[in-house]
Amino acid sequence: MQQVDIIIRNGTILTMDAGNSILETGFLCIEGDTISHIGENDEKAFEAPKVIDAKGGLVLPGLVNGHTHAAMSLFRGLADDLPLMEWLNNYIFPVESRMDNEFVYTGTLLACAEMIMSGTTTFCDMYLFEDEAATAAQEAGMRCIMGEVLYDFHSPNYGAIEKGLEYTESLIQKWQDDPIVSIAVEPHSLFTCSPSLLKTANELALKYDVPLIIHVAETLNEISEVKDKYGKTPVEHLHSLGLMGPHLIADHCVHLDKREIASIAKHGVKVIHNPESNMKLASGIAPIPELLAHGVSVGLGTDGCASNNNLDLFTEMDMAAKLHKINTMDPTVMDAVTVLRMATIEGVKALGLEDVTGSLEVGKKADVILVDTAKPHLTPLYNPYSHLVYSARGNDVSHSIINGQLVMEDRKLVTINLHEIMERAREKSREVRAWVGD
Q1: Could you tell me which residues are beta bridge partners of residue 39?
Q2: How far apart are CA 398 and CA 207, in angstroms?
Q3: pTM over 0.85
Q4: Which residues have a Cβ under 8 Å from the Cβ of 234 and sit 6 or more positions away?
Q5: Helix intervals (H) in 241-366
Q6: How far is the C-alpha of 266 from the C-alpha of 232, rounded, in Å?
Q7: CATH numbers and ranges of domains, the chain
Q8: CA 425/CA 109 separation, integer angstroms
Q9: Which residues of the chain fall below pLDDT 50?
Q10: What share of the chain is helix, strand, coil (3-state, %, to 5)?
Q11: Phi, psi torsion values for 59, nearest 5 degrees
């Protein structure tokens, strides 16, 4: 009998592999940090000190949050129902200027707790004090790509932008051998970053072969501002600076014309779709069906809690599917399988991690979640993909495993003291109230 570390049994396994293979009564074995076996009939050939009974539920890859600002969990509900630029300039940027490393560490741990408890196992973060954010994610056991936000004005973390580039390079060097933490170069946007900063950031990303991540074409105001400054659309501006390529991850991409969509596809640029944030800020509806039709890798993101206001990718999937159906007046657009793949294997393709995670296949890292289907809103079950996208919610996830480590068991967090981090978050909220009042 072969010894493994964890066996998951008695569940319907959605592999999300190239053929969307499903094992109706499957089992999965984990050795160390890796999936070592998936099958249906030879479970008795294996034994493990930890056996998890899926109880007839669904077993699938952990979800992938392709774009967020994790520590903004501490700004949830701070400034709702405002236009983006007013929201940024009058509330978010001013309170961010008062933050410190402890604030970001606390907010990131709170976000990790929320993400783990709603089935997310990988996230991509853009924020401040990202060394502390990376430390928090590592302690929580979450797979992540982190990047210090870079812009032309003074940062409360690194000060002048020259220091920001140095800080980013030090992050890349510090975390380059970590099994779950990766670093990207992340200039904020085309309207907050000069052409010289964007070019230097791109050179740094290419030097270390890491992603370059930036907000692109999120609002009509951004389009106007970039056109006024440079006489080009955002995508044309990126192209003129030499930034277009498969290393570029463009967040949002709400306002694109046909030529820009073709250019994104031609250059292998990846896109992260954030439907709930785009809706809440009235930014618009991204042309995701058109991007997918051009073969663009598109992942799904929640954006930060100040503009969403949650990190639950189940609700994001539901919204993504329905938003594009009503926008196109076509109920067949963005079907459940397509959307679930955006939140799993296509999401990690967009982040460049498809060889590591995103599907349940032998040799990939063990990032696995279990969904408890023994609930009224999930009964009866005809189509598991449909259930996951249109019926399930984050609190239906019973177990989460990341890199072979059990981080949530029977809805109880293993790596995070939830009571302690929520109390610390409440303390930080009192600081935020004081800052807003100043």
Answers
A1: 27
A2: 41
A3: yes
A4: 190, 216, 217, 222, 223, 226
A5: 258-266, 275-280, 288-293, 313-328, 336-342, 345-351
A6: 19
A7: 2-61+364-413 (2.30.40.10), 63-351 (3.20.20.140)
A8: 9
A9: none
A10: 40, 25, 35
A11: -120, 125
